[in-house]
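The following record pairs a protein chain with its ligand, dioxothiomolybdenum(VI) ion.
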Amino acid sequence: MTASPVGRATDRVEGRLKVTGAARYSADHPAQGTAYAHVVTSTIARGTITGVDTAAALAAPGVLRVYAAPEPRLRLYPVAEQVRGFSENYAPLQDADVRFHGQIIAMVVAETSEQARDAAALVTATYDARPPRTSLADGPRVEAGPSTGGTPSAVTVLAPGTDSIDAALAASDVVVEAAFHQPVQHHVAMEPQATLAVWNGDRVTVHAGAQIPAAYALVLSQRLGVLPGNVQLITRHVGGGFGGRVPVWSDAPLAAAAARELGRPVKLVLTREQVFTLAGHRSHLTQTVRLGASNDGILNAVSHESVAEMPASGGWNLLPAHSSSDTLYSTPNLRTDPHQVILDLPASRAMRGPNEAPGAFALETAMDELAIATGVDPVELRLRNYATVGPATGRPWSSKHLDECYRVGARRFGWSERDAAPRARVDGQWLLGTGMASAVYPATLHPANVRVRLLDDDTAVVSTAISDLGTGGWTMVAIAGADALGIPLERVTPEIGDTALPQGAPAVGSSATHSTVPMVVQAARDTIAELKRRAVTDAGSPWHGTDAADLRYERGSLHGHGRSMTFGQLLTTLGAPGVDATAAGPGGAPAQYGYHSFGAHFCEVRVNRFTGEARVTRFTTVADVGRIINARAARSQLVGGVIFGIGHALLEENPLELDTGRLAASTLADYLVPVHADIPDIDVHLLDRPDPVLTGPLGDGDEEVGTRSLGARGLGEIGTVGSAAAVGNAVFHATGIRVRDVPITPDKLL
Ligand code: MOS
């Protein structure tokens, strides 16, 4: 029997292309006659452009066009209300308004990228400037809206007879109150935003990195004022997304509009500096968590308030308590209260556990403070408050093994040897400490369409327009196809990243795998049913005139009436090159359950007593993420998530200049992310307990069409939820200093 590849450590199917440089990212695609664009950005944060001097740029070598705001030659249109979440609130170069520092105010197109960049440096502008709103204390304060999943933003649950969360807190034996501040952070995908637009009549083919190809093409069609079907988006290899490739930013519509106006393909690649203001960031915010508990640490009240930036130019509705404070612990009284302040900043966007990572930093730091206040061990404290139903919903989970994460993690890490007292372990210059935190991330089943095609050479093609941001999507599709069809992985060709394919699941919210896999199984079933139908109805078939119910499919072959043929042999006999079927999944899972992935993080740090430098020396993560499809990619996702958490805790920050509205960091030399030297070997353990509900009934491996791939649940972001708090809690344990405004830089530890 062909062993299913499900759960094994499988190399990326596109790995060779990537390591040999043969994989083409958006900017790598060639097109005959391409012209190159370069954008010019504003040097004020708010006001009106009074003039743009383009004369010097127009006279520079190789320059074809200089477009400047307001630009009548590049018509771009507003997008419909329903897709607002996938774009900014304005179309670039259509008016003279400046909405943030670093907005596009002009664009040069030239014969070469060097000429375009050179000429762009010659463009100057004058402004009528107004003071920007930049402080969370400044602007109009609005209540946050519901989450994209429809979850209400503000949640209040009160025990009978309790009037308010404040009353519940006041009635508690122990109260912990902690206020947090988090600066602007960035996605910093390796590949900067890049677009190649090629028109053919009134149709345009766009190469660009996109997490949701169908939404991206739809928004782009609206910006350009063409029919939705007239935009084909190709997004095969993508150098990271992390939320920053969900929307259509200003660059892609401008490149496409210029290509249309010029009658030539146009390529536009943003510089790293431009990416910092033109492709999103995580909103900065303040949070206040209040926990009320009994003397033995049983929670009586959880209150989580937040005030986050909402850029006027467009932004992410940040709900940091969502899925951390409103989900993680059992409590009779719960209040989440998110607010937003409208500021004149670049558009913000969902980023790497968008609500959950900042929210869990606050909640899980406060839980550590409660552990100190009550003298209860941090793991034991979490077990004492273990939720078996959602505290806000009352629903049980489809599958939850967080208690096992704590126990397995504590054992692997050696938690029991811990001395609870802070600043107790010293090794020469270094203070040693350990800390832990929980992780939770919602699992949403999104609509997905998958086509399975069997070919006459005994290979199969599995097609779905998902995007692989480097996460392993290509390989996941191949594994699910091989499992469903019972054929070797090498005989399955995955096709993704092209809106000409059946519309795939969005690569957001850690949901692409569990949304896609059930539809691969369904499409394989439907394709085999079609193969059987052809086997009994086609005149050339040896099974012609028999009953399809007598045929059995197994491991790439049909069997029946004493005869066996591979699907390739049958298709060859029939003279049919292939047979296919497409399955369409509507998304959604039974409403009586809650669906989340869970995890527990354990961290050891060393903090230098003299310099304040904090180094993470050990990290163990145990995650409950359903069935593992690809052990290698899964571990890699968890490791990446923890690295994000370490960056969040210790390094990542873009300081905002309050007077100018300028984000100070614009390179990877001043916006710091972890490098290899910052990261220890990370111990990842995945429980591999299939979710029996989220993706439908589990198979036992004996089905005609394999269902071993069912039971997966998202794992893309769970590693980044709570991991920053585990670092911060370890820093507190090492030093006795509690830092609530990340990043925990050396100056805060001296
Ligand atoms: Mo992700 S922040 O859901 O793209």
